[in-house]
Amino acid sequence: MKTNKKKEKQKGKNSVRLVKSRSKNVSRISFNERMIEKSLPTSRVFEDSEKILQDTIGFYSPRYCYDKLLKIYKSSSAIKPNVDIYKTNIEGLGFSIVASMDLDYEEVVEIVRDELSYRGGKDVSDEELDAHVLLLEKQQRREKIKAKRIADSLVGDESFTDIRKKTREDMEVLGNGFWQMVRNSSGNLERWYHYPAYNLRLMPMLDGVVEINIKKERRIGTLKLVKEKKMFRSFYDLSNRMYFKEYRDPRVMSRLTGKLYKNNKAFLKAIKNSELPKNDKPASELKHFAEYFPDNNPNGMPRFLFALPQVLGKRASAEVNKEFFENKVLPALAILVNNGELSEDSIERIEEYLEEKIKGIDNYHAALILEATPSAGTLLDNTPKATLDIKQIQQPKDAQFRGYEDDCSKTVDSIYRTPMLLKGGVEKITRDTAETIIRYVEDQVFSPERETRDFFINSVLKNEFAVSLAKFVTNSSITKDSKKISDMLATLVDSSIILPSEARKIATDIFNKPFKTLDDKAWTRIPPKMIQYLINYQKNQTATLDDIDKTLENVDGDFEERKIDE
Prior knowledge:
Layout: H1 2-10, H2 31-38, H3 48-57, H4 66-75, H5 80-91, E1 95-99, H6 106-120, H7 126-153, H8 160-174, E2 176-183, E3 189-195, E4 200-205, E5 210-219, E6 222-230, E7 233-237, E8 242-246, E9 252-253, E10 260-261, H9 264-272, E11 285-290, H10 308-327, E12 333-338, E13 340-342, H11 344-357, E14 367-369, E15 372-374, E16 387-392, H12 402-416, H13 431-465, E17 470-474, H14 482-494, H15 500-511, H16 528-540, H17 545-554
Parallel strand pairs: 8-11, 12-14
Antiparallel strand pairs: 1-17, 2-3, 2-11, 4-7, 5-6, 7-8, 9-10, 12-16, 13-15
Helix pairs in contact: 5-8, 5-13, 10-12, 14-15
């Protein structure tokens, strides 16, 4: 009886039942994995085979597991655009071979005079100076041609630009980049290649300080060998199971064992005595590029790790929005039946609805209908009436966490110091503002990165090929308004502030395009106002055009007074 009364009391009352929905499997970084990513500074995860090799060979472990770094890079929409901007604007604009010093400028010529005077211990006459400058100009032209041919011949099937782009991507994603430097049988540098950083590991510094020869400029146009002492390290390739030595290490290293030998003769003797495998060969050289980080690990540090929470947070918010479409359990609206009782069929329908009828984009606007039987009436037959009520449950928005995602993107961009303008964000930006932004990022970000790479390449040209009067320069983007520059140059030339020959050189630097030199034309070295003065003089006097040409050819001096009183 008590049980029946209890059931009667429950009739007509609201009842609550929890219905569990099983989510579909979606591809996303799990919570545990996300926590591992957040603890990257103290977490080094390796495959068992790599861990065994590390204990046996003794290489430095990467700062972070490369597989996880690649996983973050592949899944992040905040990193790749910035890396692509670096690849295009730092490495992807080609290069030029230019003069290391402009011998047309009098200040440079005076430096040559001072050097000759210091070296000879006496004053140098103008005739001696002109003769020496002429020799330097000829040497400079030869070296520019030589450097261009060297830069073109050192690369194999890939262009130099492609090699640099791949190296830049390795540096920005894994923290390290490598060039393989290959020498011929004579020991001369013959090729350089991009070497993938994924399988390479850095070894500790090798024992002993090595004396090497460095070419330094003793005087303008002349290089002198100078001995310096340096320590080197080696590298190990996990995939190919072989060693590499550091660029410019003069010793011979076994490719299979990593042992060092004084010279090639000692290496061949070790093979003959079966100290080394018969198929062993000398290890080739690698140049290591990395962003410096002040600790005892020589591996580089990818930039995006300084904003790792924002990188992961942006990805997580995108997954939440995606999962909302795939696994949402809130219907768009519900039709409620009051003064009724849910039947078992209705409960089963709810479970089926939450499990199959609401998830996915196709069911985004599905509605839930709840049916119930009327509650039992009283003795007076006062049966309550069932009513219907429609309730809106969802209030869809364009996207969740939009403000958070924008903040994350700005933080990641600030690490790379790249403006939104370079990613196509041009809303509410005027032309003058855009030019200022581009000029800033060019001067503060891209140009210093190019100079770092150019410094190494020029050291190769100097030490390997004895090029001193020409230099390698990575091209920069044209960041200035060409019309404004043209108008400004025309004004400067017309005002005799600069000469026409100087204007052509300035235009070459600005537009990354070589203009034909007109140094053999006398008028390019004369202030235009003087030329105009002579033309007017010829019209009013008996002087002929031949007389004017002779006058121009004989004009000499420093042109310190550029203005002519007419």
